Amino acid sequence: MFGWRCNCNSEELLCRLDLVVKQNAELLKLLKEMKVTQQELADKLGELSGTVSKIGAETAKSLTLIQELKDTIANGPPVSAEVQAKVAALEAQLKGVDDLVPDEAPPSP
Q: pTM higher than 0.70, yes or no?
């Protein structure tokens, strides 16, 4: 029927067939595990993406607040050198955080 023949007896053929069935079952089990593992990975990636977005929004807000603070200091009464130094240090720290994530490249035409 299939164009091939087996030179083994019925018992040997059943034994081989049983082995193939067990191997197929094991492969199916591994495929299911891979699917679950990939879903877990996809879920974790989604979670991490949300965290990165949150960090980006918080960093942008902090940079805006620092700029507002600098503007207030520049337009208000004189402040001590210590206050100026603290603002500069805070700005440097936030710039360091901002520099950890590269800016998006502008879209190419």
A: no
Q: Report yes or no on 5 lying in a domain.
A: no
CA distance 68 to 65: 5
Residue 82 lies in a domain: yes
Residue 1: its pLDDT value, please? 40
In a domain, 109, yes or no: no
Overall residue count recorded for the chain in this entry:
109
Write the pLDDT tens digit of every residue in 45-54. Answer: 898 988 888 8
Q: Is the dihedral of CA 7, 8, 9, 13 positive or negative?
A: negative
What value does the CA radius of gyration of the chain take, rounded to a whole number of Å? 32
Give the Cα separation of 70 and 88 in Å (integer): 9
Task: For residues 96 and 51, give the distance between their C-alpha atoms in angstroms, rounded to a whole number.
Answer: 18
Quote the number of domains for the chain.
1
